[in-house]
Amino acid sequence: MNQPASAYFIEDRHDPNETHTLSVLVQNEPGVLARVIGLFSGRGYNIESLTVSETESQKHLSRITIVTTGTPMVIQQIKHQLDRMIPVYRVVDMTLTKRAIERELAMVKVRGIGEPRVEALRLADAFRARVIDATTESFVFEITGNTDKISQFIDLMRPLGLVEVARTGVAAIGRGSEGM
Amino acid sequence: MTDKSHDPNQMTGAAMIVRALIDHGVQHLFGYPGGAVLPIYDEIFQQSEVEHILVRHEQGAGHAAEGYARSTGKPGVVLVTSGPGATNMVTPLADALMDSIPLVCITGQVPTHLIGNDAFQECDTVGITRPCTKHNWLVRNVNDLAKVLHEAFYVATTGRPGPVVVDVPKDVQFATGTYHPPRKSDVHVSYAPRVKGDAMQIRKAVALLASAKRPVIYSGGGVVNSGPEASRLLRELVEVTGFPITSTLMGLGAYPASGPNWLGMLGMHGTYEANMTMHDCDVMLCVGARFDDRITGRTDAFSPNSKKIHIDIDPSSINKNIRVDVPIIGDCGDVLADILQVFKAEAKKPDIKSWWQEIAVWRARNSLAYKPNRDVIMPQYAIQRLFELTRGRDTYITTEVGQHQMWAAQFYGFEEPHRWMTSGGLGTMGYGLPAAIGVQVAHPDSLVIDIGGDASVQMTMQEMSTAVQYELPVKIFILNNQYMGMVRQWQQLLHGNRLSHSYSEALPDFVKLAEAYGGVGLQVSKPGDLDGAIKEMISVKKPVLFDCRVAALENCFPMIPSGKAHNEMILPAEASDPAAAFAGGKALV
């Protein structure tokens, strides 16, 4: 490898990237989301999806679900870096548990008349998407499912008059009776 | 309503801050006043338990507090105002985060109703300092202030130590609320650093150590941070195992430089024997170090055939740069004690005679050799003389950043921990002078020397005024080569000898400068005059600027060039190795 003139060793990393879903339980206090996001941007980690909401209001607990990609070493770093933040209670790698359910919600607006409109409605039915708004020339569908299913539905809507999409990002929870 | 006027815990936010400092045993506070901290300064004025040291620039306060903390093991405390006061603190905070130095920084903030209004001297202090602190807080309610202050001290000093910021709006300083002394419930339930190492992992580590044929101990700043007991245990472990030991820049002094098993510092400008031992070892025990890029060189060729044990209090240090075989999360002192106990009970000293013989061959190459000169002072010689003439004294050394820093690390022998204050991680030029002031405040009767460079020292030169005001007799020992030497060295090595802006033109007359500040200036340029001048510097009970004119074009060796492994060091031309001499001598000048 030809090393450019640098005070740093510049390394090519060839480890394959993996996608992991992390659930992070945090104290809901000012700045906590900024801390988490700042960690990702500051250290050059990826955020594919991020959802956050208070989940236990009496205890001021919020749950952040992050989908991220990186080499196995980077994923491990991300978890450790999150875990050492003062307001972070727990970090669970939902992907490693292999027992997690992931869901995302999307609202998909499609404009069209005639045959494409009928086709859109038929596909929506096949995907168990609900019509939550309609005009004579448009629909807004609500669809819930894993990321792949939603992406597939959006791809199908594209030639049928897709106008816009709003997605929530992934929420995840473990199967079975145990909590996080 | 009950009458609260006689409740001693009812007080203003400003009074709470001073009270909390006292409750945490703070004796010295480094700071600079301004509009948003005036109520706190008013409280400071009316008491005598906490002594305030007025600096000349907030960055100076931060580095002084770092020097204070590093030399005492206690947290350094800083008080600065909002806006520019806070932004000037960013460098010391980032520096302290990198080197795990406990700092508690209290910043003033504009009144809560003005936050977000672009008010005079407003900045988003918690936003700006979030990535350069271990944690930070904006206190919007005076009744939260006591809890936050106590938590701040706890977070700064426990686990992996680090800097914290408490941002206090001016109306909160004026408001009256209830104070309480420190208590356990002040701290986040989610913050519980692990101190004790896992027993299974410790057994695995001992088994590896006991079976080692080519072992090495690689220790770092974590041992110093853990306290004197950790250094004692490290020395005992070296004694019990007979293993060779090297250390990072931050860890110097944990094992004495005069110790028989000492290999010298490792890494980019470490000794040949330390780096070769690291490269060829079969078992590596890393204690409180973090496999930083200045240590490892090329990571894919780093110590390729060793099993690695890594003790660190911060789980995120594990497997960050180098994959290790036996990670142990815990405090260096606790884990070393457990390892020693198990080792003494179940293992015996491995026979590593042949390993020591190999090391002796590497040592014999004398990788720190330099060409003596009778006409000009060689910078290495200056450090050696400084070391010899301060030997046996109660001495603390701080440094700036650059060649002089590496020469200080290579040629000044540290016998005890907490005696060496340097900016390792962030590499902050201008660290050493204010750090020396902080050290001198903590140790008024000790000899405190900042080994500086002509470029670095000018970055915080204004703190000479602080030293004079508080009669702190710090010695600023400047290796003056009229260059930013390390920048120039890299330009010579990697950028075709085009010395772009690395020459120090228009240097001040350091002797006159010292006198202008009310200190003492000394200048020496002949090797024969050096000893006398150093002795004079030591005997002067005032701040001294010592302008030591050294060989201008000397470079710092040995060196691991970028993209190279530990066994591909460039040795100085003077080392006793013809091939290396060629590589080193011809590539440069």
From TrEMBL, chain A:
Keywords linked to the UniProt accession: Amino-acid biosynthesis, Branched-chain amino acid biosynthesis, Transferase
Main enzyme class: transferase
Listed EC numbers: 2.2.1.6
Keyword Amino-acid biosynthesis: yes
UniProt cross-references to PROSITE patterns, sorted A to Z: ACT
Reactions that this protein is recorded to catalyse: 2 pyruvate + H(+) = (2S)-2-acetolactate + CO2
Pathway per the UniProt entry: Amino-acid biosynthesis; L-isoleucine biosynthesis; L-isoleucine from 2-oxobutanoate: step 1/4; Amino-acid biosynthesis; L-valine biosynthesis; L-valine from pyruvate: step 1/4
Protein name: Acetolactate synthase small subunit
Organism lineage: Bacteria, Pseudomonadati, Pseudomonadota, Alphaproteobacteria, Hyphomicrobiales
Underlying gene: ilvN
Automatic annotation (TrEMBL), chain B:
Limits of the Thiamine pyrophosphate enzyme N-terminal TPP-binding domain: 11-127
Cofactor: binding comment: Binds 1 thiamine pyrophosphate per subunit. Binds 1 Mg(2+) ion per subunit.
Thiamine pyrophosphate enzyme TPP-binding domain mapped to chain residues: 401-548
The enzyme's E.C. designation: 2.2.1.6
SUPFAM superfamilies per record: DHS-like NAD/FAD-binding domain (SSF52467), Thiamin diphosphate-binding fold (THDP-binding) (SSF52518)
Cofactor names: thiamine diphosphate; Mg(2+)
Catalysis: reaction(s): 2 pyruvate + H(+) = (2S)-2-acetolactate + CO2
UniProtKB keywords: Amino-acid biosynthesis, Branched-chain amino acid biosynthesis, Magnesium, Metal-binding, Thiamine pyrophosphate, Transferase
All copies of domain Thiamine pyrophosphate enzyme central, residue ranges: 202-338
InterPro entries registered for this protein in UniProt: Acetolactate_synth_lsu, AHAS_TPP, DHS-like_NAD/FAD-binding_dom, THDP-binding, Thiamin_PyroP_enz_cen_dom, Thiamin_PyroP_enz_TPP-bd_dom, TPP-bd_CS, TPP_enz
Keyword Magnesium: yes
PROSITE patterns named in the record: TPP_ENZYMES
Protein's pathway: Amino-acid biosynthesis; L-valine biosynthesis; L-valine from pyruvate: step 1/4; Amino-acid biosynthesis; L-isoleucine biosynthesis; L-isoleucine from 2-oxobutanoate: step 1/4
Metal-binding is among the record's keywords: yes
Annotated PANTHER family: ACETOLACTATE SYNTHASE CATALYTIC SUBUNIT, MITOCHONDRIAL (PTHR18968:SF13), THIAMINE PYROPHOSPHATE ENZYMES (PTHR18968)
Protein family (similarity comment): Belongs to the TPP enzyme family.
Protein name: Acetolactate synthase
